[in-house]
């Protein structure tokens, strides 16, 4: 039996108060995992699980603002997801496009699309780019929407872009091999110009990266939550922040 709602409210307030003065993350990445399993667990269709997950996003962004997070990256669709049943992919893309448009319409957050958008149907890509465009001058929290995203694809794309750039400048492969650095590759990632994530949260109980921000998360802290994404609550988010605040970050040193 779950505790009464008022007890959760009291616990949440205590958790939040305990975080005062703690070191909290500036960039949080979230793997929104478990929509399909949540739907099965409550007897709903898969599409309803995806919609329930989409409906939870605004809550999360509000909690991040409250905690002073400056940048959030949400993994909404992987390159592997594109190989699922065609009807599920079509439904999911429509939910994502509608959700992103709704987020943009508030002009509360500055949106940035990250991923292989050319893998998506052109009308979906156009809607995502339009949402990104209308928030370009927003000064609020920055929000990366990872759609058609895969960490290996991102790194491969960055290397290709780097090679093309230097080839156009007349450099040979040998010359490039002699000068290429980690910083050069970072400048060609989808997230170029942004800080790496301090904290990565994955819901649904899975304890693996699955290809999320492979390059950027080298020194990130990870928090794995048992709740399926549609069931993710403010108290779960505060627990993730508490876990982060209690850790000693060595950043590879």
- State the oligomer: single chain
Order of helices and strands: HEHHHEHEHEHHHEEH
Tell me the strand order in the biggest sheet: 3-4-2-1-5-6
Structural class: alpha/beta
Distance between the termini: 45 Å
For the record, the CATH architecture of the domain at 25-150 and 196-204 and 216-245 stands as: 3-Layer(aba) Sandwich
CATH topology of the domain at 25-150 and 196-204 and 216-245: Undecaprenyl pyrophosphate synthetase
Q: In terms of per-residue confidence, which ranges show pLDDT below 50 for 5 or more consecutive residues?
A: none
In percent, how helical is the residue content?
Answer: 40-55%
Shape: globular
Residue fraction in strands: 5-15%
Task: Give me the number of helical elements.
Answer: 10
Radius of gyration: 19 Å
Instruction: Please tally the β strands and state the result.
Output: 6
Q: Give a quick account of the main beta sheet: strands, pairing sense, barrel closure.
A: 6 strands, parallel
- Fourth-tier CATH superfamily name of the domain at 25-150 and 196-204 and 216-245: Decaprenyl diphosphate synthase-like
| CATH class (first level) name of the domain at 25-150 and 196-204 and 216-245 | Alpha Beta
Overall average pLDDT:
93
